[in-house]
Every structure is written in C-alpha cells, then in structure tokens.
Amino acid sequence: MTSIKQLLVDLVSPGAKHIPSNYIRPLSDRPNLSDVQISDGSIPLIDLEGINGPNRSLVIQQIGEACQCDGFFQVKNHGLPEHAVHKMLETATEFFRLPESERLKNYSDDPTKTTRLSTSFNVKTEKVSNWRDFLRLHCYPLQDYIKEWPSNPPSFRNNVAEYCTRVRVLVLTLLEAISESLGLERDYIDKSLSKHGQHMAINYYPPCPQPQLTYGLPGHTDPNLITILLQDQVPGLQVLRNGKWVAVNPIPNTFIVNIGDQMQVISNGRYKSILHRAVVNCEKERISIPTFYCPSPDALIGPAEELVDAHHPAVYKHFTYAEYYEKFWNRGLTKECCLDLFKT
Asked: In the list 16, 80, 193, 250, which could disulfide-bond 295, CB 3.0-4.6 Å?
C-alpha cells in the first residue's frame, strides 16, 4: 500500500491546525471566502409536480429559462422518496467511516476503472491537491457494474442501486423536458446518447483546519450531459454568476441540477455549462453525491441540426464522447473550459 497517496480521511487528525503544503493553493488561486455571495433564491427552484400534467408547458418553459440563463436549477417534488435519499446519504457516511484497510480494497488512481476510491482529482498529474476523497461508481447498465461495487457496508449495493435507479428516472424526465424546451422532439437528446452512461461520485470532504487556503474542488464545468447533485445539509457548493461566486446552500428534499458540456454542445451554445466549485470548512465533514449522466463513449456529439441555420452557425465540431472525456481528464480541473478545444 506504500504507493497509494494517503486518503484525507486517514491524514487529517483531530486538532490539527495546519494543512499539508501540497494542499495550499497559490495566493492568486484561493477561494477568497469573504467575497462570496449567499444565494437569496437567485438559483431557480422548479416544482416538477406538474411536469406530466396540464402545467407541463409552464414547467418546460421554466426549465428552458434556467438552462439558458443560469445553467443551474433546483428541483422539488422530483419523485424520489425521502427514504431512498436518506439511505443513500447514510450509506455514504458509513462507507467513509469504515476502517482504512476495508476502504482501500477499492483504491485506484486509474481513471479507466469503473469502480474506484481515490483522492483529490488526478493524483498522477496535479501539482496542488484538492481537499476531497471520493468513491466513483459506474451505475448503468446496473447489472454490468453492481458486482464490483463495495460489499461493505453490507447494505451498500442495495441502497445505492435503489438510489441510482430512481435518479435515472428523474434524469430521463428532465432530458425529455429539455429537448422540448429547445424545440426538439421529446426523445432527441435520449437518442443522441447511444447506449447512455451513468456514473456517480460519492464525495467526502473532511473538516479542514485552513479552508481559506484550499478547495474541495476548484472551479470547473462538468464534462458530461447533466448532473443531479444530492448533498447533505453542510454548505459547500458555489456557482459563478455574473463574475461573482454564489453559495448555493442546501434545501431539504431538493436536488441541484446543472447542465454539462455535452448539453451546451447539443444546444449549440444556447444552454450554458457553468463554472462551479466546492469549498470546505473547519468544523464539519461534508458529503455530496453527484450523478453524472452522459453519452456512451462511442456517441457522436454535435449541435442539433434543427438549431443550426444561417443566423445560428454551428459553434462546435462533432466528436465522440470518448475523445472529449480523454482531453478533460488529461487537462485536469482548469478554469479554461475544455469546450474551447472543440469549437468550429
């Protein structure tokens, strides 16, 4: 195990006053926490209760406006029962409290592994580490991956399988609505993804003695299509709006939805994949669980033909999702969006 970079959960000792030097950001690249605004309802909260009823057109309009103006929105009445959400958060916490020897059975710094525990973002290439441990899982098709998931805690596979299956239903509902909001056929985005892919990250952010010097994750856009974020009640997510970082504090029984790079491409730049980041705090651990819904590696992604004309030329080239993800991973989390490499 000596080749393994030590996980944060095993590195941080209670009462520590300083973080290791490899977590300290350069002065010009620190969170500047005193300059962060608190979201006062500026991130749209959309009620999905009417999405399959007579108010569908209104809900679709709200989703379209949020995708175009914000790139982020929150949803309530999303169809996931509270017990499934609670069990998911509980299971995540239990996993990171397992003994080190048990957790490390899942460790790998190879990004091609479909189930892996790791730390930071890309330990092979980055110069400054991020204050995060994570368990990454592929979730769809479920039967292809569930047997390689951790078997400890004993309830892990059942609880996570129920959660990610229910989240997929929510994602497919949102994809139909987003397709319609763009004026496309309801199944357009669904068909553009080839066989579909669904991944999940269970992020663990331990308390940090010097949160002003580091990040849980620095500013980045998501390389996938759409992300559904479940978080506990500890704040940490911040979104860039009008050049200012805005803290999006958790609201019980809601999910945060954000548009990923592939959606920006399909919409020909109409919908925005927005920079966001995770900060840490000195008092509490934080759990966040993003579900990343994405095209299959072989899917050919490009602007929808219906959204390209003489007044709206194609902003992006066509590419496979595998090409895109490889560049994203090798570049790491940088403020320059990977999308810029694929512009026409």
From this structure: 193
